[in-house]
Design brief:
With 225 residues, this protein is an alpha/beta fold. The chain has 10 helices and 6 strands, in the order H-E-H-H-E-H-H-E-H-H-H-E-H-E-H-E. It has 2 domains: 4-59 and 184-224, Alpha/Beta hydrolase fold, catalytic domain (Rossmann fold, 3-Layer(aba) Sandwich), CATH 3.40.50.1820; 68-161, no CATH class. Strands 1-2-5-6 form a 4-stranded parallel sheet. A two-stranded antiparallel ribbon has the order 3-4. Strand 5, helix 10 (207-216) and strand 6 form a beta-alpha-beta unit. The longest helix is centred in the N-terminal third of the chain and has 14 residues, at 4-17.
Length: 225
């Protein structure tokens, strides 16, 4: 997504609008994509991006209170097995679902129990301090989209390894799992200005992890924190 999808989007928009450069505003997973893209093809993005605005930036997130549950081996294994067993490849759901898809998600949550609720809570807060608890159930009943299970498991891998690294396809393998993969070196990003906006109450993109991004990036790239 950080290379193919973003490149396709930028090529299409710049061709359509005739603007030579665009400001990219990414939130959460959208920042992960751009961080990865910049480490792989920065020269391309340097010609297309005037500024990268990272809202709730996510790279490695060992301090993420909500995602930390997925970093535990038992939780990761349970989600991976349940996903394969019931064919659940995304959490949340599309607006329209078939009966069988709804039934599969029900069985998935039945198997994973409280862990399923914690994962669903990533997408909207049930904490009355930050959100209306009544709206939480409305949102759960009428979701607008979904998040790939692979993305959630990828973040879990990064939490467990305390590294910003690429997806490990053999991470959960019982025999000789390969858990350390290629690191995503954001310290090499030098050509695109970056503005970071982090919230002190963000339970996924924790402020401590946002500061790690700030301190790891080349100082010359930072235009706001």
């Amino acid at each position: 997504m950080g290379t193919s999808d973003l490149k396709t989007a930028f090529d299409y928009i710049t061709e359509l609008t005739k603007y030579p450069k665009l400001a990219y505003v990414g939130h959460s997973q959208g920042t992960t994509q751009m961080f990865y893209g910049l480490t792989q093809m920065e020269d391309y993005f340097a010609e297309k991006v005037s500024v990268f605005v990272a809202m709730g930036p996510v790279s490695k997130i060992p301090h993420s209170m909500k995602m930390m549950t997925l970093g535990a081996d038992h939780a990761y294994d349970l989600l991976e097995r349940a996903s394969a067993k019931f064919g659940i490849y995304a959490m949340g759901s599309d607006k329209e679902q078939s009966f069988w898809k709804k039934e599969a998600q029900y069985k998935f949550c039945e198997m994973t129990g409280e862990l399923c609720i914690k994962v669903m809570d990533f997408f909207q807060s049930s904490d009355p301090e930050y959100d209306d608890p009544e709206r939480y159930y409305v949102q759960t009943a009428h979701p607008g989209g979904s998040t790939p299970m692979k993305s959630l498991l990828h973040y879990a891998q990064n939490i467990h390894m305390d590294r910003f690294q690429v997806w490990g396809p053999h991470y959960g393998r019982l025999i000789k799992p390969k858990r350390q993969t290629t690191e995503i070196p954001i310290s090499t990003i030098t050509k695109v200005p970056i503005a970071i906006f982090a919230g002190k109450n963000d339970k996924i993109a924790d402020a401590v992890d946002a500061r790690w991004i700030r301190d790891t990036l080349a100082p010359a790239t930072m235009v706001h924190y």
